[in-house]
Hints:
The structure is a homodimer.
Chain A: H1 2-12, E1 20-24, H2 29-39, E2 44-51, H3 56-72, E3 77-81, H4 84-91, H5 95-113, E4 118-120, H6 125-138, H7 142-145, E5 151-152, E6 155-156, H8 164-173, H9 185-205, H10 209-238, E7 239-242, E8 245-249, H11 250-253, H12 259-267, H13 275-281, E9 289-291, E10 295-300, E11 303-308, E12 316-319, E13 325-326, E14 332-337, E15 347-351, E16 359-362, E17 369-370, E18 379-380, H14 381-387, H15 392-397, E19 400-403, E20 406-410, E21 414-415, E22 428-433
Parallel strand pairs in A: 1-2, 1-4, 2-3, 4-6
Antiparallel strand pairs in A: 5-6, 7-8, 8-11, 9-10, 10-11, 12-16, 13-14, 14-22, 15-22, 16-19, 17-18, 19-20, 20-21
Helix pairs in contact in A: 2-8, 4-5, 6-9
EC number (chains A, B): 6.3.4.19
Protein name (chains A, B): tRNA(Ile)-lysidine synthase
GO molecular function, one term (chains A, B): ATP binding
Amino acid sequence: MFLKFQNHFSTQFPFLQKAKILIAVSGGLDSMVLLDLISKMNVEFAVAHCNFQLRGDESNEDEHFVQSYCTSNSIKGFFQKFDTKQFAEDEKLSFQVAARKLRYEWFYELLATENFDFVLTAHHLDDQLETFLINLSRGTGLEGLCGIPSQNDKIIRPLLHFSRAEIETFAKENNLKWREDSSNASDKYVRNKIRHQLVPVLKELNPSFLDSFENTLQNLNQTQSLVDDASRMVYRKVVQDVDHQKIINLNELLQLPNYQAYLFQWLSPFGFSAWLDIYDLVNAQSGKQIFSEHFRLLKNRNTLIVETKSTEISSEYFIHEHQDELNFPLKLRLISVCEIGKSDAKTIFVDAEALKFPLQLRNWQEGDYFYPFGMNGKKKLSKFFKDEKFSIIDKEKAWLLCSDNQIVWLVGKRMDERFKVTENTQTILKIQLV
Amino acid sequence: MFLKFQNHFSTQFPFLQKAKILIAVSGGLDSMVLLDLISKMNVEFAVAHCNFQLRGDESNEDEHFVQSYCTSNSIKGFFQKFDTKQFAEDEKLSFQVAARKLRYEWFYELLATENFDFVLTAHHLDDQLETFLINLSRGTGLEGLCGIPSQNDKIIRPLLHFSRAEIETFAKENNLKWREDSSNASDKYVRNKIRHQLVPVLKELNPSFLDSFENTLQNLNQTQSLVDDASRMVYRKVVQDVDHQKIINLNELLQLPNYQAYLFQWLSPFGFSAWLDIYDLVNAQSGKQIFSEHFRLLKNRNTLIVETKSTEISSEYFIHEHQDELNFPLKLRLISVCEIGKSDAKTIFVDAEALKFPLQLRNWQEGDYFYPFGMNGKKKLSKFFKDEKFSIIDKEKAWLLCSDNQIVWLVGKRMDERFKVTENTQTILKIQLV
């Protein structure tokens, strides 16, 4: 069994041999198998464990389990507690989505600050199938049926080709220990129903169902790439990007018999979902508009215009010297401190003398770049957004704190290397997002 | 319940009110409900029943059931017996595929010869779902998940929006009688497993699952239209159509990161399926080739060429006056007869004096047209092929019997109006495909 895994790893991910790897370990069956497999492969790796604090003692026991495993095997571990409930409430997300967001944000942070090349997660083929069936049961589209990719930028899922049964066999053969998989009760109810009632029937209908399903996923993903091509090719003909507006030329658009499909592709990333209204808007009178949470879609003569809601239109705000608070559009607090404290997503410490007042707070613009803290060299903000999987909405909501138009802080995400506290720093300014 | 159906019909298919309709009636629940609904709508209609002779007495009893229903309700009925087993064997098809082919070919024939505007079939939403799950269980791609459309050219499926439960409720409310659905045993086993074991779980997970599923299908179909767009747009850039060859420019193709997905789209209609070999062929040496049943794919310098296998390359064969048989490439028998007999797909009767010998037998060419028997006026052969749902392979295999380059007979499919026997005919020639 080990050979089968190892062969797959070395043919599909040969570059892992020389990489510095971070393994996401919940303590469940799948991630403990992944950890064991990687341990046996003589590569440089560490463990990252998220404690989402959603299941009280159990969550803490999972953390202790992974901690003591790391200690007894001399593995470097990173452990992070998240106030997932609070975050979910603040961001109006389900616990699951909130946990996923927190998890991947932290992974990307570790990638950058600790110089890992890749994060490995232990998703497997049955996970793919269960997600496919969950999405099908709720109603979905092609994207909901495509599954997650085995490599997406720096996230790698080396077990995606294997079934739960294979992983379990390996765990038993190797006397591995694990904790029961962490997932909240309602998700567990759905997954269990699918796992124990749907999947067995599909396997009865076709004994090699999982293999067929893997082919199906491959086909669907290839198809998805054609959809992306069509969307992009037609976009270039029909849509004009002007500043923060996207202007859809209806004369061009309406020549396409399937123009609704294109509107769907282009507008759903902006959070629009009232499709029937949107399809009506095409023929509505000039001036009519439809809103998503952060954007509006405006019928204007022979065009549809997508733009941020007017209250959110890009503006600049200033922080003057000795000003110790900003209240709008964000609440920031600035304090001179004597020594550097614990920095996190919401708190940074900068070299006050490197700043030129007034500081500006503004939205990002095409062409913005910065020197992300913990990285060598500069990076275009657009690239940073892409690597960190910012959605269009995340990007529009992002605020930059700037000094003389140099980015000091992508607020709440990452500070700039150029303004960090060094041994030569005389005055430290603590800036806090409240 | 009747109103619900009626509203749907009149909003979605308003043109049916004034159309001449042919209803496909198996005698099962679904088609008897459709027949009853249409009967109550005051439109001109008739019934078509296929007896596939696959279930012995049962098949005949179904036919008698529909016949006697038509008689007692004064409905015009068309009844056709098919030797489905023989046809399936000859064409190397499964019984199911053979039956489908026979059914739709006959429907299109009736449409043309009896001047119907549309054929209605009784497929419903649960059929869609079951087909989706059958295809999923076997392994599939987007096309296998898209279901059948509610309108496809002249085939209309007005019940596609309704569930089996709704249809059954209507049947009971209206005291309808029906025969148990005809389907072969192995198909029944699979459908029953899906119907009784899979679908109920999906409905437990989401009580409005069928509605969600209908949305899913809509989304997938919209997406499929984008796939078709991408395939067509890129085809125009990368492929040259020259005579009977398609020449794929590899220099252009290989610039696309997802070129395999395009090859899949373009080549599967030609019956190719050895995808790994085909993807290798792209980088193979000039002269290497791969075959499907009727086509070959040739690597030639910086191109891939799709063409018919060399033995099948378009040729002309001649039938001279008084020649009573042709043995190659088809076996045709020609006999002078005194009076016209029963003509069918394989037997035609023509006015011998209208013919100019030698007759030619050849493949079709772009620009060919004929006067399909039973229709007014002429029709391009390409349009005829399209309406009759000829596949690329069907088209390449089609033979034309011509007189002075006018089409006399699309062999085995349809004769030409210009050569039919009239009251002025002196000599009748019977031509038979043996």
